[in-house]
Structure formats: C-alpha cells, structure tokens
Design a protein that fits this description.
alpha/beta; eight-stranded mixed β-sheet; eight-stranded parallel β-sheet; 10 helices; binds pyridoxal-5'-phosphate
C-alpha cells in the first residue's frame, strides 16, 4: 500500500540505545515521547525492547495504548478537567499548572484509592504552559494540600511556542525554584525535568545543571538531531523514517498556470516562477497526509513544485527514466512523521 511510511527498526533501536546510554552516564533519566508517531504499538515495542521504561505523551488515548509491566507513563499536555478520571487511571504522573485541575485529579485518585503524581510546570519564558516563576511556590503549596496528589517534581518546556532556547540561565532558574519549593513546602522533589530534545545540546556539552535528572525526548530519537540548533548528532541516524509514494502522472508542462488567476484550493494566492516547460510528475499523496515543506526527495535531482489535498507535484526535468507506477522515496522531518502517522491513508512498514 502506498504511500508507505517505512520505519527502520535497527536504526531506531540504535538511536534509542545511543541517547539512553549517553543520558544514563550523565545521571539523567530519559522519558521517551510517543506523540510524534501516535504511540503506534509496534514502534513503542522497539523502545521497550531497547530498555525504555518511561513513556510520555500529550494524549491520554495514546498512553492508554502503552501497556507493559514495570513502566511509568506521563501525560505531557495539561489535563482537561473532563478527562481527570482517565488521567489518573492511565498515567502515573501528569504535568500541571492549574490548581483546579489538580483538585479534580485528586478527587478521582481518592475515589480509586491511589495517589497521582504531579509535575508542576514552570514557565521560564517560552509562554506556553506553566506558572510564572513568582507564583511557583504559592501554587506548589496549594498542590501539596490536595488529597490523593503527590507533588513529585517540577519541569520546564521551551523551544515550543516562543522559540526560546534552553540555557544555563533559564534551567538555573528552574533549579532555584525547585529548591525554594523544597524548603517552603518541606518536600523532596524527585524529578527536575529540564525540557525536551532542545536541551540535549547542553547535556552533550556537560552544561546541564547537576540537579536536572530528567529530559523528555521525542524528536531527537527519530530525527537524530538536537532541536535547538538543528545539529545532527554524530553517531545517530537521521533516516529512521522514510516515505515511499507512487507516481501517477509524468508529463511535460509549462511552469506557469494557464488562464485567469484566482486562489488555490486552500484560499491562498500563489506566485509562480516561469522556468519554461518542465517534466513534472504527480505522486499520490498530499496535504491530508503530509505538508510538502516536510518532505525531502532522496534523489536530489527531484525538486518540489507544490501540493493540494491529495496530490504532490514534483519537477523531474533532471531525472531520466521516470514513469508512471514508479516509487519515489523521501526523507522526513518531525512534522512529516507526525502527520503521516495520523493519516489513515498511509501504510506503515516496520522492518
Ligand atoms: C512534545 C513535548 C516534548 C517532547 O519534545 P521533543 O522536541 O519531541 O523532544 C516534551 N515535553 C512536552 C511538554 C511536550 O509537549
């Protein structure tokens, strides 16, 4: 079935073991983030088989699918109050910033006779989730009072909405807040979570604060690159995932559309460059499966032209012997893997 997303198990296993060992040697626990591939069970298996015991995802539906003995599951996105019961049933810990939500989790945990762990998120400047530093101690105190809840740690997340980089300064601020909370609330925080794949560059350079003992890692494992500066990591594979798509048309066509110009299928007005007649092909996949910006032809003679919902157009002028029915292969970035695994029209081949 095409389009087909290929997962190279050996390369994935290598990347998992590589980062797992490196982090362990530096005293850091890695929890692997499965949302980038919808926690597909066969892919999660590769993580488990290669020693990963902590899994994290933004969606409780994904965590619910991850079932092995002796693992820990963390909910990354702040819980919805409406899903509180599922959150305490299917996750061991959730990331939180709202006291009302934590109270709802506490009520459900008490009902089930369990304790739910909470990681308090501190917003050190990226301005997505988390309490601002000046409100951290107060919020922590309130959370400590909730029955059925254990305040287990603190965490930060950058490199997301605001594009703020993790640095020794903002990680240092997180650690200071953690120590203040420990003193003011008289608790020991088990986890200080210093961010995502973007923080790995600091770990590589031994510049992560010694009290940081956890990172939440997704993208780095399947793209083989840290995400703050998009640097490939030596010793890791960048092509764990690739896409194969089938050619459904090959024709010589002008590069400028013919006729009166309106908007494209997405209501966008697009400018075209006149490159004369080109040999173009269409592959059977489109924006419903993948954005053309996230797709990189392995044959570098192939250039990207454009796409609509179900079609992607390529310039193959410089490619000899291309015909209908051929299969073309592409490298992918994180966004591509995310959308391809979400599309039910894309086959998955793990080998
Ligand atoms: C998605 C996510 C991660 C993982 O980020 P990567 O860049 O894929 O490593 C970590 N933490 C939170 C809160 C997330 O939402």
């Amino acid at each position: 079935m095409y389009p087909k997303l290929n997962v190279n198990k050996q390369k994935l296993a290598h990347n998992i073991k590589f980062i797992h060992k490196m982090a362990k040697d530096k005293g850091i626990d890695i929890c692997c983030v499965t949302k980038g591939f919808c926690a597909h069970p066969e892919i999660v298996d590769v993580f488990y088989e290669n020693g990963i015991r902590e899994f994290a995802d933004s969606r409780i539906e994904n965590l619910q699918k991850i079932n092995y003995v002796g693992i820990k599951r963390y909910l990354l996105r702040l819980p919805m109050i409406s899903e509180a019961k599922k959150v305490v049933m299917y996750s061991d810990m959730s990331l939180n910033s709202e006291i009302e939500t934590v109270k709802a989790l506490g009520r459900e945990a008490c009902r089930l006779g369990i304790t739910h762990k909470v990681l308090l998120m501190i917003d050190v400047g990226d301005l997505r989730e988390g309490v601002r530093p000046e409100n951290a101690v107060f919020t922590a105190k309130e959370m400590c009072k909730v029955e059925g809840i254990k305040l287990f740690g603190v965490g930060m997340n950058v490199n997301c909405y605001g594009g703020v980089l993790p640095t020794e300064t903002n990680i240092g601020e997180l650690v200071n807040i953690a120590e203040e909370i420990e003193k003011e609330c008289n608790v020991k925080l088990e986890i200080i979570s210093g961010g995502n794949s973007g923080s790995v560059y600091l770990m590589l350079q031994d510049r992560l604060d010694r009290r940081v003992n956890n990172l939440r890692i997704g993208e780095l494992v399947f793209c083989g690159a840290e995400t703050s500066f998009q640097q490939n990591i030596e010793g890791m594979f960048q092509d764990v995932f690739t896409l194969e798509a089938e050619v459904i048309e090959v024709k010589d066509k002008p590069s400028l559309p013919i006729g009166e110009m309106g908007l494209n299928a997405f209501g966008e007005s697009v400018a075209y460059e006149d490159k004369g007649v080109m040999k173009r092909c269409i592959i059977a996949c489109g924006r419903q499966d993948i954005s053309i910006d996230n797709l990189f032809p392995i044959n570098q003679a192939i250039k990207k032209v454009g796409s609509s919902s179900d079609h992607t157009i390529l310039d193959v002028t410089m490619v000899e012997d291309i015909k209908v029915g051929d299969i073309l292969e592409f490298r992918l970035n994180y966004g591509a893997i995310l959308s391809l695994t979400t599309s039910e029209y894309v086959g998955l081949d793990i080998k």
